[in-house]
Amino acid sequence: MSGLVRRLGKVGVDTSALFLCDMQEKFRPNIRYFPQIVHVASRMLKAAQILEMPVVVTEQYPKGLGPTVAELGDISGAKKVSKTCFTMCVPDVMEHIRQSAGVKSVILCGIETQACIQRTALDLLEQDFDVHVIADAVSSRSMVDRMYAIERLRQSGAFITTSEGMLLQLLGDAAHPKFREVQKVIMESAPDTGLLSLKSE
Fold this sequence. Notes:
Shape: globular
Number of domains: 1
Pfam families: Isochorismatase
Domain Isochorismatase-like: 16-164
CATH topology: Rossmann fold
Family: Belongs to the isochorismatase family.
Order of helices and strands: EHEHEHEHEHEHHH
Strand content: 15-25%
Organism: Branchiostoma belcheri
InterPro entries: Isochorismatase-like_dom, Isochorismatase-like_sf, Isochorismatase_domain
CATH superfamily: Isochorismatase-like
Mean pLDDT: 93
């Protein structure tokens, strides 16, 4: 192990950003567990806003695929970027993250797991960011694609976790000054997004 640094995936509010990928109207009928995925992503957005973390929202070809769904929440304070490529790591996004001094970890939610989520994670890993994929906030049209994309991301060095697990790690301590505000988000249980059925397949 000499010369290698073991990456533990520890996160901090001051060193993390939230990426919300392509949760748009035209995807609604086809993505498995779409309402639940958006609900979990909305929880992450609320917490990120409370904790004053950088937030990036992308839309894939919005002219054809529609806007970000309203139920995600208020994204007026986020960096919003339109794209056509299958990654969030477009120049506008990466410049924004570089200007957000100290960001070392990216928390990733959205769709589709085997497409934009996977490519975004790989691009970020290549640029030496820690990547945390929120398993209950990513999905695909196919549960098979979702399952194997999550496994592929784990093999490549991304950390796979849940929304509640991530929020607790970001807080780190019940004495955190924003704990009670974020606790209200945590106390609303995350919906079932099919992860148990993935495990059983």
